[in-house]
């Protein structure tokens, strides 16, 4: 009886504590709704009385940032404002000019960073924690413009290879190895395997690796418009190889998706798949005996280079709380970053000495080897144009023509046609 009563007391205490936290959070949110302003059809907080205002797009970040604010030092009263990506930077500039309601910190994809930098919406990151000791060159390059750090690497996505260990004992080093495997593998004898290799062939994240070693737009940091190399012999050879794969594996780009690829792999119906960070949780929960490998080269001579998409945190130079913003952005992107995946499913850009979750170490290795999308303002639709080129190649269009058209289009966008 005493044990039962003790349990009830503990439950009551926990309930009271939870209610107190909820009231504090509710009061903070109520304060955040004091003054509102319409901007581009959205209602945005103008004056919340919060310690910091943070703008973001991805709603999955909310529990992590709120928990971080609660745990940070003596706790912070923050206002999280979800703002659509449409005219995102323009809205920040608008609020900066008005001098009220501007974000102290905002979260943005790295390919938008040059636009933010050129508009005077970034501040220099001089924090010594953001070095190659704690971040890969890929992460630091994603947060850089004009040769210097102007943001804080936060989280990323990238493409990697998975393989079913029940049928493939070792990670493939090349796609040629997968083709050799396919030529001798008896799928019918397994009773379950339907596919040798699957990936979402209409998504640049998974496709880019086939040509990534032989294209360069914007240089190392993706912000130098004088560097354009989108048409060379190795690129055309890689496009030819990619086209041959499309004919061999017969993937229908009109019906395939990253979700269907993941489902087929976790059900044991596919031997090799190309997946992204969001698939890791399902892979580990599926119970399938799998391995993770970096994106294979095409052949022994044709190399691959996977794509990564890095999201960064930026401290607004117009913030009225610069020092406080710099310290908190360090907390969420560096000091406390080990908790990011568990609360959001997003993988932190920060490196760690070890990883408890299977697969993470290899994904980080892949991230370090990957290329980022360019930040060039004039080539903001580069990823769309590149995927369109790959779609055309997949459908059988001439590879040399497609590469030449792609390069010419980008040179024209950058006004470099007469300089080449």
From TrEMBL:
Q: Name one GO biological process term.
A: maltodextrin transmembrane transport
Query: Per its UniProt record, what Gene3D superfamilies does this chain match?
Result: Periplasmic binding protein-like II
Cited InterPro entries: SBP
State which residue ranges cross the membrane.
7-25
Superkingdom of the source?
Bacteria
Provide the alphabetized UniProt keywords: Membrane, Signal, Transmembrane, Transmembrane helix, Transport
Query: GO CC terms on record?
Result: ATP-binding cassette (ABC) transporter complex, substrate-binding subunit-containing
Q: Which PANTHER family match?
A: MALTOSE-BINDING PERIPLASMIC PROTEIN, MALTOSE_MALTODEXTRIN-BINDING PERIPLASMIC PROTEIN
This protein is called Maltose-binding protein MalE
Organism of provenance: Parasporobacterium paucivorans DSM 15970
